[in-house]
Specification:
The protein has 162 residues and is of the alpha+beta class. It is built from 3 helices and 7 strands; from the N terminus they run E-H-H-E-E-E-E-E-E-H.
């Protein structure tokens, strides 16, 4: 029996994650203190707000692209989607166009085997940036896709010949 590899986060860092998490962390503390000072009804509302903030904090920390032996998991703030390796065609980088001056970032996209394209929540640095890891992330994801497709083809050939 083969052991299945657990989900592994391939594209862990998003450029917006740090300010987002810091903002929610500060809000978490402020709501808890203010709610406790206002009374029991307000404290209950504060606890519910803090729980919602904690949930979004958790989701923000775990957004990304994950891989395993069975496929790919695209995890965003609001929802996750799992794709089997047979559904995945390749991964590509597409620049995001913004009217705001500053560094340009792009998004990691999944091109499905049927041609449909899915934008992930992962923002990656452009290749012009010396610290950019876009090529490394794409190479790793596309390598895993090719390996999974080769394993599926070998299993299909073994089943038809044997």
């Amino acid at each position: 029996m083969t052991q299945t590899r657990q989900w592994r986060q391939v594209a862990p860092e998003a450029w917006w994650r740090t300010p987002f998490v810091v903002g929610y962390s500060l809000t978490f503390a402020a709501v808890a203190v203010l709610g406790a000072a206002l009374g029991s009804i307000q404290f209950t509302g504060s606890i519910a707000t803090v729980a919602a903030i904690a949930y979004f904090h958790y989701r923000a920390r775990t957004t990304g692209v994950y891989t395993s032996d069975s496929g790919v998991r695209l995890r965003g703030l609001a929802r996750s989607r799992e794709l089997g390796w047979a559904e995945v065609g390749k991964f590509v980088y597409r620049p995001s166009y913004s009217r705001i001056p500053g560094p340009e970032y792009g998004s990691l996209w999944v091109v499905l085997a049927d041609g449909e394209e899915l934008k992930t929540s992962v923002k990656v640095e452009p290749e012009a940036d010396p610290a950019g890891k876009t090529a490394a992330i794409l190479n790793e994801l596309n390598r895993e896709t090719r390996l999974a497709h080769a394993e599926m083809a070998a299993a299909r050939d073994a089943a038809t010949s044997g």
